[in-house]
Amino acid sequence: MPLPSNDHLHERLAAWFPLLPRPRPACRALTERVDEINHLAHIAAHGPPEQRITTAAEACNKAALILSDCGLPDRAHQLCRRQFDLFHAHRPLAPTTAKLALQPLVNLGRLHIRTGQANRAHQLFTHAYQALRTRTATTIDGRNIDLTDLTDDHSAARGDLARFLWTVLLADGTRALTRAGRWNDALEHLERHKGIGDRMLDGRQVAILTRIINDDHEHALDLLAHSSTPETWEQAVASYLTTLCLTTAERETQPADTEMVERYLALPHQSTPPVFRCRLGLCVLDLTNHTPHTPITTDITRQAIAAADAYAAHDVLTHPACAQNMSDTDQHALTHIITTAGLHHGEEAPAEPLTELTDAIAASETSLAHALTRPQSAHDQPRRNYPSTTAPQPPGELGDDLAGPGDTTEAAPRGIPRY
């Protein structure tokens, strides 16, 4: 199989890298996901009063993700703006509630990345962080936003919020720059914020890939040689990046190619997130020239079908080399997963579940507005065992995506995942 062009490789790298096995909500059947929003809306209206803000916000965040997945980005953007406005109208907020209020702004940035407006996303993340840190008004998405009195004038609370947006700027801001193909800017951004460690996490991957893209292959190989890769997934990613570097440098790739395939196939099936596994497998398939493709394509396809996740199904079905070696039965199975999820269907998405979703969103917004009129305290939203967004991270590490810094709040709502 001929190797893909450099343009194709750069497009793939910008879309999927940094690539890490982070937990993310699966894109399952649309009816199943809408049922979850209905359930959350019911709890937000009738559940314990101290959980209603958290649950209503969770419903809105997940509903925005569904709208985006269905190819309705304008409706997703509008929902995020309305949600932020509801919180903002009731400021000053308790510290935990204030963090919930910031999540719709973060989601707006991630929606911009999804719709190909990565530079706009980076600007949003930057403006939001600077406005909160300097206690000034700013312009976000063409709207004047004042965060000066979002929470009570308590230095610890404001510091907590600033750290949250700092992790967003570091992780999501980097993702926005790489998605825009601005690898040098992404590397400078990470170096300025001391975001490059020894592990094969976001910062190190960007540092290596920037050197590869700039044809600085010796430096890239040196970074790879001195990387710490204690986890099997890190070893698999490092093997891929090594083969990529040798390939673009037009050097002999045979030993590295074989190791890359072996490392990929050795990934544990149960504990490796399917989207990560499928995307890494497709990247491996792009490069391998010395190993039979059948074991790789079979593994990728089986993983995508077993996961019943439309994100993975779409990636696999639209990859030419994988699709051409796929049976008709497997193609139909993957197509069915995508169709039932309504992924990218736009206005052709099934009307009935979208109508149910609209009603659930309206109910959640009403519950959120009512709950925000209650006197707030720092203890109104109990911790629900989600990892803290402000827990100290090892130097140079960005932390976990959906399950840690730069993504979720300390309370329940999950934000729009990095795509």
UniProtKB/TrEMBL annotation:
Residues 370-419 are annotated as: Disordered. This is Tetratricopeptide repeat-containing protein. It comes from Actinopolyspora xinjiangensis. InterPro entries: TPR-like_helical_dom_sf. It comes from the Bacteria.
